[in-house]
Fold this sequence. Notes:
This protein has helices spanning 71-74, 105-116, 136-147, 167-183, 213-227, 234-238, 255-273, and strands at 14-20, 30-40, 45-55, 59-60, 64-69, 83-87, 90-94, 125-130, 154-158, 187-191, 230-232, 274-275, 286-289. It folds into two domains: 14-56 and 278-289, no CATH class; 59-275, SGNH hydrolase (Rossmann fold, 3-Layer(aba) Sandwich). It is an alpha/beta fold and 297 residues long.
Amino acid sequence: MQYPPATSTGGTPPTQxxxxxxxxxxxxxxxxxxxxxxxDSKAVTASCSFNVTLTVPPKISQTSFVAxxxxxxAGEVVSESTIAVTLGGVTSWIRPxxxxxxxxxxxxxxxxxxxxxxxxxxxxxxxxxxxxxELAQDGVNRLPTIIDGGAYKVLLLMEGVNDFPDYxxxxxxxxxxxxxxxxxxxxxxxxxxPPENPNTNACGKRGGNWAFVDPYNSGLRSLAASxxxxxxxxxxxxxxxxxxxxxxDGLHPTPAGYQVIADTFFKSLRSTLEVTSTPTSTAxxxxxxxxxxxRSR
Length: 297
C-alpha cells in the first residue's frame, strides 16, 4: 500500500519522519492503524496517526444471465414513438413499436452488476431475449432456442400480460418454462408484472386488462413457491405508481419504470448470488485512508 509522506506545519522542520507500517508495506484486509513520528534537530518528537482500510471487491457466483419475456423485457418505450393522427375529429395513435435498448431493464441491470462486481465486469453478460407481443405459450416454444446449449446459467423471466384476460393459460405456460429451465440446470428468477393504468388514453389505451394483473401476480407468487424459484416482486416495487412508472398507453413502463424493474432484479440477484471473497493479493482492489495525517510540530 502506497500513501503520501507525512508533512509538518509550524515549529522546527523535522530531520526524520518514520511511519509504521511504512508506505509500500503489505497491508492485510481490514483496517490498519498507521503511526508517523517526526523528530527535529533538537530531538523533539511529535506523532500522528491515520487508518488505512483495505476491502475486497464483492463477487457474484453467476455471471451469465438471459432476460426472457415480451416487449417489457425488450424495452419498448411507447412515449418515444407513438404518433397521434386525427381524422374527422377522431384521434388515433400509430405505434411503431419503438425499442430503446439502452433503457431496457436488461441493459440497466447489466450496468448495475458491472458497477458493483468490478473484478468480474469482463465476464458479466445480461442477454436481452425480449420479444414484442409474445404470448407466454409462444414463449414456451421459443425458450429452448434461447437457452439450449448452456450459454446462460441464470434465467430472468417476466411475461404473461399479452395472455390477458386468459391469465390462467399464462400461468400454465410460465410453469412450463420454469420447469424446462430447471431441467437445463438453470437458476430461475420469476418476476411479477407491473400494474396497469386504465385511466390514461394519452397515446393509446392499453391498460384495459388492469383487473387481471393482481390475480395473475398472485398466481405467479404461488408458482414461485411451488417450483422453488426466487420471486422478484416487480409489482410491489412499483408501489402502485401508474403515472410516473407506467407510460402513456397505460401498459408499458416508462424509462423510470424500467429502472425500477432493473433495481428489483439487481437486489434479488445480490441477495441470493453474492459471495464473500477470499482475501488474496490480487483481490485487494481499494485502499481508503480514513483519517488525515496530523502534521509534526
